[in-house]
Specification:
The longest helix has 18 residues. The termini are far apart. The protein has 9 helices and 10 strands. The protein has one domain: Rossmann fold. Helix content is 36%, strand content 18%.
Length: 226
Protein backbone atom coordinates (compact mmCIF):
# COMPACT_ATOMS: atom_id res chain seq x y z
CA UNK A 1 0.00 0.00 0.00
CA UNK A 2 1.13 3.55 -0.70
CA UNK A 3 1.00 5.81 2.35
CA UNK A 4 1.18 9.59 2.04
CA UNK A 5 1.97 11.53 5.21
CA UNK A 6 1.80 15.31 5.49
CA UNK A 7 4.40 16.59 7.93
CA UNK A 8 8.09 15.88 8.46
CA UNK A 9 8.18 16.36 12.23
CA UNK A 10 8.16 13.74 14.95
CA UNK A 11 4.59 12.51 14.31
CA UNK A 12 5.09 12.11 10.59
CA UNK A 13 8.45 10.42 11.04
CA UNK A 14 7.16 7.86 13.53
CA UNK A 15 4.24 7.01 11.26
CA UNK A 16 6.58 6.70 8.28
CA UNK A 17 8.94 4.40 10.18
CA UNK A 18 6.05 2.14 11.19
CA UNK A 19 4.54 1.92 7.73
CA UNK A 20 7.85 1.32 5.97
CA UNK A 21 8.69 -1.40 8.51
CA UNK A 22 5.43 -3.12 7.58
CA UNK A 23 6.44 -3.18 3.91
CA UNK A 24 4.46 -0.23 2.59
CA UNK A 25 5.67 2.49 0.25
CA UNK A 26 5.82 5.82 2.08
CA UNK A 27 6.16 9.45 1.06
CA UNK A 28 6.41 12.32 3.51
CA UNK A 29 5.01 15.63 2.31
CA UNK A 30 6.38 19.08 2.99
CA UNK A 31 5.72 22.63 1.77
CA UNK A 32 9.14 23.02 0.17
CA UNK A 33 11.40 20.01 -0.36
CA UNK A 34 14.59 22.02 -0.86
CA UNK A 35 13.94 24.12 2.25
CA UNK A 36 13.23 21.02 4.34
CA UNK A 37 16.48 19.40 3.23
CA UNK A 38 18.51 22.56 3.85
CA UNK A 39 17.52 23.01 7.50
CA UNK A 40 20.32 22.50 10.02
CA UNK A 41 18.53 23.36 13.26
CA UNK A 42 16.30 21.27 15.46
CA UNK A 43 12.59 22.06 15.28
CA UNK A 44 10.51 23.66 18.05
CA UNK A 45 10.09 20.26 19.73
CA UNK A 46 13.77 19.42 19.60
CA UNK A 47 13.69 16.94 16.72
CA UNK A 48 16.85 16.71 14.60
CA UNK A 49 16.80 18.27 11.11
CA UNK A 50 15.13 16.16 8.45
CA UNK A 51 18.27 15.54 6.42
CA UNK A 52 19.94 14.02 9.48
CA UNK A 53 17.00 11.68 10.09
CA UNK A 54 16.77 10.83 6.40
CA UNK A 55 20.27 9.32 6.39
CA UNK A 56 18.96 6.28 8.25
CA UNK A 57 15.54 6.21 6.54
CA UNK A 58 16.41 6.40 2.86
CA UNK A 59 13.53 4.13 1.78
CA UNK A 60 11.11 6.89 2.81
CA UNK A 61 10.47 9.33 -0.01
CA UNK A 62 10.14 13.09 0.40
CA UNK A 63 7.85 15.16 -1.81
CA UNK A 64 5.72 18.25 -1.93
CA UNK A 65 2.23 18.17 -0.44
CA UNK A 66 0.80 17.84 -3.95
CA UNK A 67 3.11 14.96 -4.85
CA UNK A 68 2.31 13.23 -1.58
CA UNK A 69 -1.45 13.59 -2.00
CA UNK A 70 -1.23 12.10 -5.48
CA UNK A 71 1.07 9.29 -4.26
CA UNK A 72 -0.89 7.97 -1.29
CA UNK A 73 -3.72 5.45 -1.33
CA UNK A 74 -4.34 6.69 2.20
CA UNK A 75 -3.27 10.16 3.35
CA UNK A 76 -2.31 11.02 6.93
CA UNK A 77 -2.43 14.68 7.97
CA UNK A 78 0.31 15.00 10.59
CA UNK A 79 1.32 18.64 10.32
CA UNK A 80 0.93 21.18 13.11
CA UNK A 81 -2.77 21.81 13.45
CA UNK A 82 -2.57 25.47 12.45
CA UNK A 83 -0.96 24.57 9.10
CA UNK A 84 -3.11 21.57 8.13
CA UNK A 85 -5.70 23.41 6.04
CA UNK A 86 -3.08 25.40 4.16
CA UNK A 87 -1.18 22.17 3.40
CA UNK A 88 -4.38 20.72 1.92
CA UNK A 89 -4.87 23.78 -0.29
CA UNK A 90 -1.28 23.55 -1.51
CA UNK A 91 -1.79 19.85 -2.28
CA UNK A 92 -4.86 20.46 -4.42
CA UNK A 93 -8.19 19.23 -3.09
CA UNK A 94 -8.91 17.04 -6.12
CA UNK A 95 -5.90 14.89 -5.25
CA UNK A 96 -7.78 13.63 -2.18
CA UNK A 97 -10.97 12.59 -3.97
CA UNK A 98 -12.39 9.24 -2.82
CA UNK A 99 -9.36 8.63 -0.57
CA UNK A 100 -9.29 7.94 3.15
CA UNK A 101 -7.73 10.91 4.93
CA UNK A 102 -6.64 10.24 8.51
CA UNK A 103 -6.52 13.44 10.55
CA UNK A 104 -4.10 13.02 13.47
CA UNK A 105 -3.83 16.76 14.18
CA UNK A 106 -4.91 18.87 17.11
CA UNK A 107 -5.79 22.59 16.96
CA UNK A 108 -2.80 23.93 18.87
CA UNK A 109 -1.00 27.27 18.85
CA UNK A 110 2.74 26.92 19.50
CA UNK A 111 3.63 30.48 18.45
CA UNK A 112 4.47 31.36 22.04
CA UNK A 113 6.34 28.13 22.69
CA UNK A 114 5.23 25.22 24.82
CA UNK A 115 2.99 24.10 26.35
CA UNK A 116 0.73 24.84 23.37
CA UNK A 117 -2.58 26.65 23.56
CA UNK A 118 -5.75 24.83 22.50
CA UNK A 119 -7.65 26.75 19.80
CA UNK A 120 -10.49 24.36 19.00
CA UNK A 121 -14.14 25.35 19.01
CA UNK A 122 -17.26 23.26 19.48
CA UNK A 123 -18.98 22.82 16.13
CA UNK A 124 -15.87 23.93 14.26
CA UNK A 125 -13.27 21.35 15.17
CA UNK A 126 -10.23 20.89 13.00
CA UNK A 127 -11.53 17.50 11.94
CA UNK A 128 -14.77 19.10 10.75
CA UNK A 129 -12.89 21.85 8.93
CA UNK A 130 -10.76 19.28 7.10
CA UNK A 131 -13.81 17.24 6.09
CA UNK A 132 -15.53 20.41 4.87
CA UNK A 133 -12.46 21.34 2.83
CA UNK A 134 -12.24 17.80 1.43
CA UNK A 135 -15.89 17.14 0.71
CA UNK A 136 -15.06 14.30 -1.71
CA UNK A 137 -12.70 12.52 0.69
CA UNK A 138 -13.41 10.25 3.65
CA UNK A 139 -11.91 11.95 6.69
CA UNK A 140 -11.35 9.96 9.86
CA UNK A 141 -10.19 11.68 13.03
CA UNK A 142 -7.84 9.25 14.79
CA UNK A 143 -4.50 8.81 16.56
CA UNK A 144 -4.54 12.33 18.03
CA UNK A 145 -5.19 11.58 21.69
CA UNK A 146 -1.77 10.45 22.92
CA UNK A 147 1.90 10.17 21.99
CA UNK A 148 2.64 8.76 18.55
CA UNK A 149 5.22 6.47 20.17
CA UNK A 150 2.33 4.77 21.95
CA UNK A 151 0.04 4.91 18.90
CA UNK A 152 2.32 2.60 16.94
CA UNK A 153 3.20 0.46 19.98
CA UNK A 154 0.15 0.38 22.28
CA UNK A 155 1.03 -2.61 24.43
CA UNK A 156 1.38 -1.34 28.03
CA UNK A 157 2.35 -3.37 31.08
CA UNK A 158 -0.48 -1.69 32.98
CA UNK A 159 -3.21 -2.74 30.54
CA UNK A 160 -4.75 -1.95 27.18
CA UNK A 161 -5.35 1.77 26.54
CA UNK A 162 -8.24 3.10 24.48
CA UNK A 163 -8.08 4.88 21.13
CA UNK A 164 -10.97 6.97 19.81
CA UNK A 165 -11.93 7.58 16.19
CA UNK A 166 -14.63 9.63 14.46
CA UNK A 167 -15.79 10.08 10.88
CA UNK A 168 -18.76 10.05 8.54
CA UNK A 169 -17.82 7.05 6.42
CA UNK A 170 -18.26 3.65 8.07
CA UNK A 171 -15.99 1.77 5.66
CA UNK A 172 -13.22 4.35 6.12
CA UNK A 173 -13.48 3.94 9.89
CA UNK A 174 -13.29 0.17 9.50
CA UNK A 175 -10.08 0.59 7.50
CA UNK A 176 -8.54 2.86 10.12
CA UNK A 177 -9.63 0.46 12.86
CA UNK A 178 -7.89 -2.36 10.96
CA UNK A 179 -4.67 -0.31 10.87
CA UNK A 180 -4.91 0.28 14.62
CA UNK A 181 -5.56 -3.38 15.41
CA UNK A 182 -2.66 -4.40 13.20
CA UNK A 183 -0.48 -2.21 15.44
CA UNK A 184 -1.80 -4.00 18.52
CA UNK A 185 -4.77 -1.89 19.60
CA UNK A 186 -7.42 -3.98 21.34
CA UNK A 187 -9.79 -1.20 22.37
CA UNK A 188 -10.80 1.01 19.43
CA UNK A 189 -13.93 3.08 20.10
CA UNK A 190 -15.95 4.56 17.26
CA UNK A 191 -17.08 7.86 18.77
CA UNK A 192 -19.44 8.75 15.94
CA UNK A 193 -19.42 11.08 12.96
CA UNK A 194 -16.89 13.81 12.21
CA UNK A 195 -18.75 16.34 14.40
CA UNK A 196 -17.40 14.42 17.40
CA UNK A 197 -13.86 15.48 16.45
CA UNK A 198 -14.00 18.35 18.93
CA UNK A 199 -14.18 15.95 21.85
CA UNK A 200 -11.30 13.87 20.49
CA UNK A 201 -9.27 17.07 20.16
CA UNK A 202 -10.05 18.15 23.72
CA UNK A 203 -9.15 14.63 24.88
CA UNK A 204 -5.84 15.01 23.08
CA UNK A 205 -5.30 18.30 24.89
CA UNK A 206 -5.95 16.58 28.22
CA UNK A 207 -3.09 14.18 27.40
CA UNK A 208 -0.85 17.11 26.44
CA UNK A 209 -1.64 19.16 29.59
CA UNK A 210 -0.90 16.19 31.83
CA UNK A 211 2.33 15.57 29.92
CA UNK A 212 3.70 19.06 30.46
CA UNK A 213 2.52 19.35 34.06
CA UNK A 214 4.09 16.05 35.05
CA UNK A 215 6.92 15.72 32.52
CA UNK A 216 5.27 12.45 31.49
CA UNK A 217 5.28 11.26 27.89
CA UNK A 218 4.37 7.59 28.29
CA UNK A 219 0.92 7.79 29.88
CA UNK A 220 -2.29 6.63 28.20
CA UNK A 221 -5.97 6.36 29.06
CA UNK A 222 -7.99 3.20 29.62
CA UNK A 223 -11.77 3.01 29.39
CA UNK A 224 -13.15 0.80 32.15
CA UNK A 225 -16.68 -0.46 31.60
CA UNK A 226 -18.80 -3.44 32.65
Amino acid sequence: MKIGIFGTGMVGRILAEKFIYEGNEVMLGTRNVAATLSKDEKDILGNPPYKEWQQTHQAIQLGSFKETAKFGDIIFIATFGNTALNAIVLAGKDNFNDKIVVDVTNPLDVSQGVPPVFTGALGNSLGEQIQKELSNAKVVKAFNTLSMHIIVNPKREEGDPVILIAGNDEVAKENVTAIAKNWGWKDVVDFGDISESFWLETFGMLWIRYAFKNNSWTHAFKLIRK
